[in-house]
Structure formats: C-alpha cells, structure tokens
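Re: [help] complex structure
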Amino acid sequence: MQKPRILVIDDEVEIANLIEKYLLREGYSVRVVYNGNTALEAAQEYEPHLIILDILLPDANGIDICIRLRQLTTAPLLFLSCKDEEADKVLGLTVGADDYVTKPFSPGELMARVKANLRRAQIGGQSRSDELLRFDRLVINPISHTVSVDDVNLELTAKEFELLLFLVQHPNQVFSTEHLFHRLWGEHSLGDTRTVLVHISNLRKKIQPAPGYPEYIATVRGIGYKFRTQL
Amino acid sequence: MQKPRILVIDDEVEIANLIEKYLLREGYSVRVVYNGNTALEAAQEYEPHLIILDILLPDANGIDICIRLRQLTTAPLLFLSCKDEEADKVLGLTVGADDYVTKPFSPGELMARVKANLRRAQIGGQSRSDELLRFDRLVINPISHTVSVDDVNLELTAKEFELLLFLVQHPNQVFSTEHLFHRLWGEHSLGDTRTVLVHISNLRKKIQPAPGYPEYIATVRGIGYKFRTQL
DNA sequence: AGCTAACCTAAAGAATACCTAAAGAATGGC
DNA sequence: GCCATTCTTTAGGTATTCTTTAGGTTAGCT
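Output below.
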C-alpha cells in the first residue's frame, strides 16, 4: 500500500515542522513548503493526497492560494488559521476547502481531521484506492473503471470513461476537440474530431446529477471543453 | 481560434516558398525569412508558435541560430537539412531542436511533423510555462480560458479573450488596428480592420471594474491601442 | 468656437460553432 | 455467424458570435 502524501503549507517554520513530525509518526509521506508560490509548484509535482494550508502566508493570501490549488488538484484541503471567526470559516469552505482547524489546536485533533478527510476521499484505507478521483457528487475509480454520482453507479462506455477521466485529471484546462481526439484516439489517428463532441454530449446526459444542475463539462465556445471545478 | 504562427527560415527561395504554400493551405499564418540575422528579429517580433529552420544558411550556421533562437523563444524548433548524417541529427536535437526532417522530404511528412509538434507544445507547455496574468483588479487565466475582475468571472467571447490576452502580454506597447488584425486574424487575412475596434469597444465594457474607472485599454489617437499598466 | 478627422457604439445581417437525434459501421460476445 | 452494444458519421436545427455598416461622439487643430 502506498503511503498517502501530504503537503503542508505554512510560513511559521516551527509549527510546520511540528505538524510534519506528527504526520510522519502517523506513517504519512510529507512535504513542507513555507510560502504560497512554491506551494503551487509542489502541488503539481508532488501530487499530494491531502493539503494542509495555513491561511496566513507572507506572499499571498491563503484563500487565494486555495482557489488556485483547486485548479490543480482535487485533493482534500485542510485550512489552518489563528482566527476562529465564522466569516473566515464560511469563506474558506466555499472556495474549496474541505475542512477547517483553528489554532491553537491539539496535534491529536489535527491528525483526526487528516485521517477523516483522507477516509472521506477514500485514500489510504483500501488497497490502491489512492487513485480515486472525486469532485462534487462525482466519483471516478480508474482501477475498477467505475463512475458514480451520489453513490449511484453509472454505465459508461469505454470511450466515455476515458474522456471523462482525462478531463477530470486536468481540471479547468481547456482542450479543443482536436486535442482530445489525438490524446484519446492516438497521435496519428485520423477521423472526424466531431466524434468527440458526440461523446461529450452523451457523457453529459449520463453524469448529470439532476436536471438543471450545472454542467461538469463546460463548453468554451470557439476554444474547446474543460472539466470545471467551480460550478 | 487563433491561427498558429509559423516562422520559416531558409535561404533557398523556391523551397521556402513551397513550404509556405503548404503551410498556408493547412491554415497556418506564415512568415518567411531568408537568412539568420533577420530570423532572430522575426522571432522576437512575430512570436511564432513553431519555427522551421534550415541548417544550411548563408550568413550563419543553422545550429548557431538555433542556440540563439532558444534564448528568445520556447516554441518548438524543426530542423531541415540535406545531410542525413546521424551526427548532425543528434547535435541538432541536443542544442534544442524538437524535430528533424531531412531533404528531400514530402510536404505531407513536413506538415505532419509540424502538426505533431504544435500539439505536443500546447499540451506540455500549458501546465508549467503559462502563468496566471494579473493586473490591478483583472486576472487572466490562459489555461482555463477565464477572465475575472474582482474575482467575478466574465463571459468573454473567443475573439475578445484573444485580443485581451495579446494586449496584456504586451503591456504599454501601442498596436495599430492593422497590426492587431493581422496578428489575431492571421497574417494574410483580409477584411475590415475596423472589426478590431468593435471588439475593443465590447471588451472595454466587459472588463470595466466600475463606471468611471480608468480604461485598461487606452486609445492612442492616430496610432492605435495599448494595455496600460499605469492607470 | 467651429471644423475636421479619428474614434466609438449600437444594431442588423451573415457566418460560424455547437448540440442532438438518428442512422450506418465496427466491434465483441455467444 | 448472428446479435447486441458501442462507436462514428451525418445532417438539421439553434444559438452565439463575428463582421459590417452607419450615425453619433469626441479630441485636436486653426
């Protein structure tokens, strides 16, 4: 079983190192960065399963970083803050944080939250399920090749699944039908790239949680399509 | 969608023109130069998405030009040569060329290489080189193709987005409507350049943070327009 | 102030891109 | 070899976006 990877973003070195120590003791793989800019790089390169983010950073606002992290990853995000004002709590959660811990906190509490969030994201507990992707009401399991909305399994065809997986693995990135076609059908495939369009259309119908619910796959007219994490 | 711009550097006029002809037929925007010195200028001014470079040039060695081009741009570089010696091939790729075609070549092969390299560049390049552009209350994300003012997303059309992106990427530089037209619509496009003007007008309305707020896009009477970073 | 040239913008027509349903082609299981 | 499923192509309808036009506005000059 692969160790869950956790990214810690905190400018206060002592606190960051303390958190790291506890996480390591629990058996996680940890990386620590001390500012927002390197955080974004680390999120891309390290591909963490969970992120612990301090709201007070020197170079950028934590919420700002949060928004930008959300565009890079779907890993659960745990906010850390000195302020326990309600306003911040609400704001933090709406911009994409999954949980919120206020300083001062007990290490035990933090560990519990980490564990809970990893479990909810279905990482760490089961074998090889660290590959599970989830967003909103949608859960994709590349290993068992299944997709569910609100825990109801969907019957996707092979191409539909590939297409969805690719888009979810690159959230908020726009791809033209040509790009998608060559990416999924092979570099040298020739054929009508409009076939991508048909699959997207069918896919949308299937993954739609409810009529009128915002589309997961957004059309960017004149450019292409993207899986958006801001509905 | 913006036409990809391709810079062709070859001293043999007939060959250069033949390549140009085929590229134009594929829908690319093309500029041709016949020697190494003007190539460097063109690379800076034209900002091509891909460069085709003949290894045998009158005034400078192609590999030499290649090295210097690499300092100016990250666009994929396609080497062209009569010699199909292995040594050259290896050397060409190590100094920064992305692909290598030996003369005589079929136009189809060259077009296929061009296409493949452009695609590869767009896929790989997006994740790291493109950054979030921000100025004042305006934020532009080229990857997700979104623009926001004060964190409120704007609904821009494809052309509006292209235009804004270009201006923001060249801050404080004045461009005539002709220049903008040829840049965004393609080198050889014909049509009324006043259409640019209409897009600028629509754009201003959309990106305006508040009534009476200074315009991001300034008119330079008799000259053109610029995106100004001093409001 | 009046004139002119340059610029702006609203609006209408033309062009384009997109969506969807449905039919035909390919694939894979029995 | 046949049937069921999935994939691809096609085509028509629709909505959006682009371009053009034309009249109004502004800025700069004499």
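Confidence is low (pLDDT under 50) at residues 124-130 of chain B.
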